[in-house]
Write a structure and sequence with these properties.
Elements (H helix, E strand, L loop, with lengths): L6 E4 L2 E4 L26 H7 L12 H6 L3
Antiparallel strand pairs: 1-2
Length: 70
């Protein structure tokens, strides 16, 4: 039988979110799916990855483009 559980790791112990229907001393196989650790990127690196298409004069006319103000 295979089941998926959610648990929290705290001080060398996995604390399950709910009880299991197992008899005491039942051996089980545990597979851990570790969360992917994302590397932190600067704002500029994230902005470049967006591949944002904007007019060439964007920085000079930002109010005009954002708010319609000339």
């Amino acid at each position: 039988m295979e089941t998926t559980l959610i648990a929290t790791y705290k001080k060398r112990t996995l604390i399950l979110d709910k009880d299991l229907p197992l008899q005491p001393k039942t051996k089980v196989k545990v597979t851990i799916d570790l969360p992917i650790k994302e590397e932190k990127k600067s704002f500029l690196e994230q902005a470049i990855e967006l591949d944002f298409d904007a007019p060439a004069d964007w920085s000079q006319k930002v109010d005009e483009y954002l708010y319609g103000v000339k």
